[in-house]
Amino acid sequence: MTAWFNARNAFVAALLAALALLPLYCSMTGNYFPMSLFTRILVLAMAAVSLNLIMGFGGMVSFGHAAYLGIGGYVVGILAKEGIGSGLVQWPLAIAMSGLFALGVGALCLRTRGVYFIMITLAFAQMVYYVAIGLDRYGGDDGLTIYKRSTFGGVIDVSNNIVFYYLCFALLLATVYLVWRIVNSRFGLVIQGARSNDRRMRAIGFPTFRYKLTCFVIAGMICGLAGALLATHTNFISPAMMHWTRSGDLIVMVVMGGMGSVVGPVIGAIVLLLLEEALPPLIAVFTSVIAGHEVIGAREYWQLILGPMLLLIVLYARGGIDGLLASVRRG
Amino acid sequence: MLYFIEQCLNGIQLGMLLFLLAAGLTLIFGIMDLVNLAHGSLYMIGAYFAATFAAWTGSFIAGAALALGATLLVGMALEVVAIRRLYGRDHLDHVLGTFGLILFFNELVRLIWGPAGMTLSLPSQMLSAVQVLPGVYYPAYRLVIIATTLVVALLLYILVMRTRIGMLIRAGASNREMVGALGINIKLLYTLVFGLGAALAGFAGLMQAPILTVQIGMGENILILAFVVIIIGGIGSIRGAFVASIIVGLIDTIGRAFIPDILRLFLSTNAASSLGPSLSSMMIYMLMAAILVFRPEGLFPAASK
Predict the structure, then answer these.
(1) Which site from A46, A64, B158, B265 is most exposed, i.e. has the minimal number of CB atoms within 10 Å?
(2) Is B285:A124 a contact under the CB 8 Å cutoff?
(3) pLDDT in the model for residue A153
């Protein structure tokens, strides 16, 4: 057993405390932008945690995880448009539809391995994307505004942004706890065993296909809930929610934070999305120092920095940020 | 019926384009075991080069030739700087690293050529329509695409199957160490193969440039279609890529053209017109799913591995 108190755990505890206190800070300063940003971060962190369950622990590299975000979001949006405003219907249905899609896709994809798996998940996600574009009644390419947020019989008021922030926070914690429990259960051990040697697991009598499919569906359902939250947060759904680059972003979050660590993806989501916010002004400062004046439009090119950064992370920092924190402890 | 023939030709033309992309992808995957998402970026760069060089030289042909060479060089430089370091790593690393490259190339193109797209105009003799069958007129340029791609496919076949360098490429695919031990510069060979793949992608981009607008991100959606092609055809098989390209091109084009009409026979016009686009864009993915159920390794699985 490792000691409970170490650099990594202290960091995670500080992070959780900061997340819990953020709305307080916002209401004191009156600037609610950080809370809106962090609601988004929490929701996408939840999606990344679910992706990590199959990718980090199960070795199933899904390049189509954003499809569940889209499905969850579209269920909420479509029901809202058709006049069913109860979150007690919307959210469970979002989870169920994502789970169903994951079951179908998983049953097909898990027949293959490696690079096939990556490409097939990508292709099916692209299919959902095009279907959403084809849905003229629900906005097609332009998307659909949700005019009224879900209602929960007056118990939870998600229209209140602070309540909604804490709801997302609680659901993220619940997801992290759930994934932690799954990973450390017998089921989770079979999944991890199948990642390192599928044939051996089958030889000792585990029907790994069923285990992996179940794991794939669980991840899809969690991500579907994240999609419902994302749609609620933005009051808007559009095919862009599940553009394939979003799936790439989720993979980046998982790898950046640290694959195979339960809290890693949360850190990765925070770092990636904060980088997206911070890189443009940083570039502006940097170029104005070099050129002596503000270079117009320079801040738009932040992805020119982010792209090579990803390549460097892949080449030199495979454990991600969580891995770096853990190596601090080892000295 | 005339409309049907025209759509078939369109489908074949799309298929040819997909083949150029898929052949490069499958070659790079089969030989270097590398998943290259940035292949679509090379397609985009080829199109931008063609538009620039054609405007510069004033000739479409000269612009295309220069663009082809430039894309080859970009591909080889990319291999030496970045891609080379990814060989032998996990597929996830390839995905992530080349995803980073896509972001980089999109921004770089925006920095160099600006956010607005470009257009590439054709020489006048290619603008006319040709009578392919009695009563069926078809744009000459699209026929040029089909014909040149067929020539390229043939050259590629000869290169890989009938020349010494093709022999080395095939040997490198089956046993890298052994080829290296026999005194072949395998690093250079890999750079050449990546450059060849890049040139094929760039060729697809520059052929497509006059038909579509040259814009940022143009390579991404067609790249995913090319993935579908190589899944159906079997990864690592150029022959499979060729057959699957034509199948996917035909099904996609014909589906988009006729499914709304077919639905109208069963459903109300309203329902058909709202369901049609969604359903027709699902066609090729359903084909892919069916192939996966019956032949998980694709139509023409590569013999080794």
Answers:
(1) B265
(2) yes
(3) 80
